[in-house]
Amino acid sequence: MSELPEPIGRLIGLQALDLSGNQLPELPEWIGQLTGIQTLQLSGIELSALPESIIRLTNLRYLSLNDNRLSELPRSIGQLSSLQTLYLHNNPDLNIPPEVLGPPIQEIGRSRGSLKPADPRAILAYYQQSRSQQSRALSEAKLLLVGQGGVGKTSLVRYLVEKKPCKKDEPATEGIRRAKWRRPIKPPGNLATQNVTLNVWDFGGQEIMHATHQFFLTKRSLYLLVLDARTNEAENNLYYWLKVIQSFGGDAPVLVVVNKTEGGVALELNESRLKKDFAPNLQGFLRVSCQTGQGIDDLRKAIDDQICQLGHVFDVLPASYFRVKETLAGWSEKRSYISYTDYEALCAESEVADESSRNQLLRLLHDLGLALNFDDPDDSYELHDTNVLDPEWVTDAVYRVITNPALQEARGVLKRNQLAALLNDDERFPLTQHEFIIELMRKFELCFEFPNSSRDRLLVPERLAKDEPDVGWEEGSPLRFQVKYNVLPPGLVCRFIVKMYTYLKPDTPTYWRDGAVLYIYGNRCLIRGSVEDRRIYIAIQGGEDTRREALAEIRDKLEEIHRTIKGLVLTELVPVPGQPGVEVVYGTLIEMIREKIDRFIPQGGKRAASPIELLRLVDTHLRQLSYGLNGTPTGVVVGWKDGFGVPRPTGVTGTFPAPGDVGMSGKRPVINSVDFAIITMKEEELTAVERRFQPMELVSGARREYLHSQVTTTNGRLHDVLIARCLEQGQSDAMQCTHDLIQDANPRWILLVGIAGAYPAEEFTLGDVLLASRVYDFAVTAALRGDTVEQNPKGGAVHRDVSRLLQLIPAATYGRRLGEWNSPAAIPMPKPALRIPENIGDKAFYGPPKWKKKVREGLLANFPGGDPPPPRYRVVPVGTGNTLVKNVKLAEAWKASARAVSHIEMELGGVYTAAQAVDKPVLSIRGISDVVGFNRSTAWTDYACQTAAAFARALIGSGLIDTRNDQPAS
């Protein structure tokens, strides 16, 4: 369309309108008549302006305007008080930096829920600020040189910046060296040449320091990967470095620079293949010599060309941002770090007043390498209060700890009180910053705390012994599995040990640099990595059923690591019993089942094998995620029913067999009028639910695809259950998901199953399950003059059928019908250990003293000592909003407006609104993974997901809900 038909303006009840991909350079003023609109998609329609009438869309929650030609926004657009999601990417004339816009919609979709859109209020506040004060172009960028030790990175920097040939005895770089390099660069278009400052970072190449590079590898930068022409591709670790850049630098451009080419030495590379494998990062190959100067001028030109293409370099920023930036540059000459309080004060003096602008500026400074900040609101690490002005201060601290001989002699065990001796510099590394250094190492998985050690003992896997101990393993293990990589990334096994530390044997743990022995669900599990074989070997001894669950736990944690290494190429292998050295690709077995192949002779094997029997050795439950040949998620789904699998690659159409009916034509359609629909958000929530509703199959609706299962209740009734997952946290996606579910399947009951954060209390605690008896929706908040925040919660009472159910459950007769939902058999992981500090001054607590005192008292009441009690359920009101609440001040504001609120989550408001419109009962089942004011172990996330899923399964199976009458059973 090139013009919007006027009759659309009379659809005042319209809730969603998608005009993306049309050619509509203008929107009519009557668009403001569509006051019922909640979702408006206007991406890629060549829009040059928005009509002022758009401000009348007071119910608008989701607005996408990316890929247009907007040069300005209506002044009053900030009055869209319901707006929760705003995409303005690829409107270059708006001059809004990427840090402000947040991740684009494509990245959010690929992130499987780990990324969230930017706050629309922050985007619009920046836009208004940038229009109200003087501004100028940034003209600054970051240039990073990476590669193995000894390839000549430091010599290359000297030749580029100072035009001096290399020194014969150039000392190796330990940590990082930095330099500034000014280049005259002509921006795109007809603009005049500008002087651009390049912040040049030269990284040391010692293998032991590779893990620290993740602190500093940023997006919006240019990378030079330097290779040594005198060594081969493997010795240069080429693929490793390209993958590291992809993982931490996103789509940042890379130039491969082959150094030391004097004398005709030439490293041969398959350049065309590398460009395809590492698109869009890899931009070119250059050959230079820091002795003769050969190729240096060509390299300078290539750098200028790439800097010119970095979109942010010429972004126009408010003058106040530059005042902060220049002051910090002066401070960095005398101070290694500053507190966040100092940063806030500087911003206030420089007229960067609001919190969103301060955070955006801090992200920009981080990407430029001018002030490093490692805070993430989703993390429990105490990193928010320190901003690093001197990156070498961080690397020096970590280097001193990791390389200290005493740490290696202690087999990687670090006691907190040893840190002063390891750092050995009270002036540079004062006692007040020791906790920050430890927390930074924890965040990047360079160390972890031993359970039940009162936080005073940590393990640094990089300093574990390389020699594998005698683990007394019988090679004829009943369950074996392998993961083969094109390159086994250094440190991957160490990261795995960090993630799985709760499964080490408490008294006599067995682990070394490349492996460990774990105890999972009563099974003994050996994990061994081999850099030479490029494989991880897994062997499990234990019960036939539980050992497969143990393997699933191991594979889940490996997949979490794999997803952080973009472009990783791996293959999962199933060894064939009785045929040593013979393995079959896991995905091939699935394909064989699709093709109805009963028997086959494996490559290298001598006897026939059954694909179904091989899969039965390693899998008992649905696995939603697998990896393709390029290492990206394929979404392969495998379910079991009567021994058959259900593979369906995401985004691929065609015929896929249903469980128990291999070869059945077409996809299974969704069941209409399904009994229960379960909505999950985080991947851990979905995984926990999946495991309790086996067998499963994939079914398709008109709007979404779902997982389908059937549950037979204790009174013999068969219930159909659909499971859906929202990729984004927050109410907008939850509302859309609920709407799609209702349209596709018309569920009689909707269960929202997942995790939440609790207010400090003695009645419930970490791991308990809370059922929502009333909904307080804090999605809309009014910030008044000064620090006042006005709350007017929406929401209301739960559905009448939910209310009846919640009245029945606590009664003894009905409670017993839930069975042993909280037993070890129902929750297949131990309750995590919990250390309650002796005083509220401990860093485990945060918030004002009164709040911290209440947090501690609540924990003491629920963890009195000895064996921790099993999880309980409670019926209590819930607060919901679009904010991940870990801030005590905000939590207090919500509590002041609705004193009955006991716990906080992010999606129920959206589900509640969509279901309420069609009179559907919604029950929120939330496991408590957090207590606001307490920094808990990340293991509580998994445990709370398990308890919520266990309760949901028990409730459906109990027969307490009679879906034939849409009310609780009598």
Note the total helix count.
Answer: 26
Categorize the overall geometry.
Answer: globular
Would you tell me the overall average pLDDT? 83
Strand content: 15-25%
In terms of structural class, how would the helical and strand content be classed?
A: alpha/beta
Amino-to-carboxy terminus distance: 57 Å
Report the oligomer: single chain
Radius of gyration: 29 Å
- Count the E strands: 38
What is the share of helical residues?
25-40%
Largest sheet data: 7 strands, antiparallel
Short description:
The chain has 970 residues and is α/β, with parallel strands linked by helices.
Structure, described:
The chain has a seven-stranded antiparallel sheet. Strands 7-8-6-9-10-11 form a six-stranded mixed sheet, sandwiched between helices. Strands 29-35-34-30-36 form a five-stranded mixed beta barrel, surrounded by four helices. Helix content is 28%, strand content 20%. A hairpin with a 5-residue loop joins β31 (781-783) and β32. α17 packs across α18. Residues 621-667, 781-791 and 965-970 have low confidence and may be disordered. It has 970 residues and is an alpha/beta fold. The chain contains 26 helices and 38 strands. The chain is globular, with a radius of gyration of 29 Å. The two termini are 57 Å apart. The longest helix is centred in the last third of the chain and has 20 residues, at 939-958.
Topology:
Elements: E1 16-18, E2 39-41, E3 62-64, E4 85-87, H1 98-101, H2 105-110, H3 120-132, E5 135-137, E6 140-146, H4 153-162, E7 176-185, E8 194-203, E9 221-228, H5 238-249, E10 254-259, H6 271-277, E11 282-287, H7 296-309, E12 316-318, H8 319-331, E13 337-339, H9 340-349, H10 355-368, E14 386-388, H11 391-403, H12 405-409, E15 413-415, H13 419-423, H14 434-443, E16 448-449, E17 457-459, E18 479-485, H15 492-499, E19 510-512, E20 515-520, E21 523-530, E22 535-541, H16 544-562, E23 570-575, E24 583-585, H17 586-594, H18 611-618, E25 676-680, H19 683-692, E26 697-700, E27 705-712, E28 718-725, H20 731-745, E29 749-758, E30 769-777, E31 781-783, E32 789-791, E33 794-797, H21 800-808, H22 812-816, H23 849-862, E34 873-880, H24 888-897, E35 903-905, H25 908-916, E36 922-931, H26 939-958, E37 961-962, E38 967-968
Parallel strand pairs: 1-2, 2-3, 3-4, 6-8, 6-9, 9-10, 10-11, 25-28, 25-29, 29-36, 30-34, 34-35
Antiparallel strand pairs: 5-12, 7-8, 13-14, 15-17, 16-17, 18-22, 18-23, 19-20, 20-21, 21-22, 23-24, 26-27, 27-28, 29-35, 30-33, 30-36, 31-32, 37-38
